[in-house]
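> agent: user asked for a holo structure of the chain below bound to S-adenosylmethionine. Plan: (1) validate sequence alphabet, (2) canonicalize SMILES, (3) run complex prediction with ligand conditioning, (4) return tokens. Step 1... ok. Step 2... ok. Step 3 dispatched.
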Amino acid sequence: MNLREEVRARYAEAAAFPARGGCCESTCCDSAEFGQSLYSDSERDELPDAARLASLGCGNPVSVADLHEGEVVLDLGSGGGIDVILSAKRVGPTGVAYGLDMTDEMLELAQGNAREARSSNVHFLKGLIEEIPLPAESVDVVISNCVINLSTDKAAVLTEIARVLKPGGRIGVSDVVAEDHLSAAQRAERGSYVGCIAGALSRAEYVSGLEAVGFEDVSVEFTHAVADGMHSAIVKARKAT
Ligand SMILES: C[S@@+](CC[C@H](N)C(=O)[O-])C[C@H]1O[C@@H](n2cnc3c(N)ncnc32)[C@H](O)[C@@H]1O
């Protein structure tokens, strides 16, 4: 099984956790620092129980994306749909929130959660974050929560984000990021690929990767440690106009 199929199999299995009462021991994102505790009480109150329990992220991209009424938001690797449902509330009926995921079981879970939340301005798309199934310059804001580290082709993901964003569009991403001194082998010693550790970019790799595809004002802010020298981080950037 190749790495992408391992990731898909792991998150197909994780999609069953909410029905069993929550996540997850070592089966998905490994650390206790991952998950639903990163949302405020008021955000949790906006969500159905199943959506809260489905959270497998490492941050809260909705809180950093500063969404406005009428915007088009795209969540890469939307999982159980928590950030799509919250985004849909922020952009309101004149906006749209898309969730993109490659795993059928996660898409089914997210659609059920969105129905329960009575979200009408959400669309879940099946596909790869390396080949986003949306037209160029059609999105105002790209968010993502603990997914880009799982991609086997990060350069393609960053290129695709730049393609779908409108000029001046922005990203507000939560992801696991390594300190620059850690080699790929050292990152792999600290945790598994499917557990969101081994595939993490370093801060310098994130910055240079985003700048290479036309982003400005790039920042990578570490928020809390998830392993030795590895952090949950908020990544922000703006596409040049
Ligand atoms: C760690 S979970 C995070 C889910 C969600 N963002 C959250 O915060 O709960 C990773 C999700 O990304 C999806 N995923 C991983 N790699 C992907 C890829 N290359 N293309 C599309 N989806 C992917 C998985 O199916 C899974 O639903």
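> agent: step 4 complete. Summary for user: Residues 7, 11, 28-29, 55-57, 77-80, 82-83, 101-103, 106, 128-130, 145-147, 150-151, 196 surround S-adenosylmethionine (CB under 6 Å). Residues 104-116 form the longest helix (13 residues).
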